Amino acid sequence: ARTPMSDSSSRERALAVQAFDEWPPVLRALFDGTGLAGKEGFTASLVVADADASLRTSLLSIGELYAPDSRSLAFALWPTSRAARMLDAAVRLGRARAALTFVHEGAFYQVQLRVDALVDRSTLACFIASIDAADCQRVRYAELSSGIVFALQPEHRQAAIDRWCQQIDCLRRAVAARNAS
To answer: pTM (2 decimals)?
Structure first.
């Protein structure tokens, strides 16, 4: 049997959940496609489902995520990845959905996305998603200090950051082309 907690103990341990349907300013700044070298290590988990409800997780760096406005997120995947193929099939059926989860500034974020494909497929599978529902979760007694975090190897760091810049440019062009049509 569970022992009831006192009011003060419950307040200290309470989960604070903040729902949002557009990117808060701190996340717009995170996903603005600038200052990528200073955002090294950030990792988000993108979970996609296929028609049979099989799930596939892709880990995305800051160089593969770009928020062109307050309610959208463009992201890039390798075209041959299972996640890209699953999303392509789901887009054709009109049922492309994904969840993006990450830790930022001591909180856990979960963002439910409706996904569509972007036309620019030069080297990447580019997608644009709109926020369906999202929340930020915190507990008052602790801060998340990290989620999935990586460190670039020194000899590959500059090449990776250069690639991120190219990928963000690709996403920007694809979003601009979509908006122009």
So the answer is: 0.86
